[in-house]
Every structure is written in C-alpha cells, then in structure tokens.
Amino acid sequence: MDDVKIGEILGPVGPGESRRREERVRERFWRTAKKAARQVPFMEELVAGYYCALDNETPPRVRGILLAALAYFVLPLDLVPDFLAGFGFTDDVAVIMAALNAVRGHITPAHRLAARRALHETEVDL
Asked: Would you tell me which of 10, 38, 79, 122 could form a disulfide with 91, CB atoms 3.0–4.6 Å apart?
C-alpha cells in the first residue's frame, strides 16, 4: 500500500465525518479486533490506540488520525477485503502502523494499561 493512499485515508476531515468515524469505530471495533487478532502482530498497541482515540484529553489532530485508521480497520470491505484469509487485514495493518507511528507519543501508559486489561477481559485470542 503506497504512502499516497495512506495519506488520503489519514488526512483531516470535518467534524461531521469525524463523529461518524467515531461512532463506526465504537460500534464495530471489538468485533473486528477479535477477527483480526491473529493477523495483527501488535494488537495491544492497536487497542491502546483505540483508547487514545476515544480519550477526550487526546489532541483533536491525533484523535482524527487514529479514528481514520480505526474506521478503515473496521470497514468490512476496503482495498483488500477482510474476509480473504491471510491477506484481508494486510492493508489495514499498513494504515494502522502508519497512524500509530505518527502519534505514538500521545499513547499514554494509561491507554496501554486499559488495552492490556481489555484484551484480557474480552479474551481476544492473540
């Protein structure tokens, strides 16, 4: 997946689209995470990014980047459809990695702790 496409996905959007993305992410994140757990080698960091994106203390630009990546992650049909065994989440992983690398400094120890607890409680099969 090239940088131009990732840049388009992670680019800024208006407040209405940002709210829609957040709703979509809140609604579908855990279901998608459970399906993708074995294909995403950094699931704990992904879940920490989820908590960072939903944290009102996170700067709006950072929330926007994370919500864009997470919204792409939860879409069932994207560049490479998620139902393709072994390949379905490869484009999602590229987008998520780019987003996490861009905002890594904003993911706090509290976000990481929440991720560890949530993964343990939801019994996501890593």
From this structure: 79
Contacts of 107 (CB under 8 A, 6+ apart): 45, 48, 49, 52, 100
pTM for this predicted structure: 0.83
Interval 8-44: pLDDT, tens: 778 888 889 999 999 999 999 999 998 888 778 899 9
Q: Where are the domains of the chain?
A: 3-122
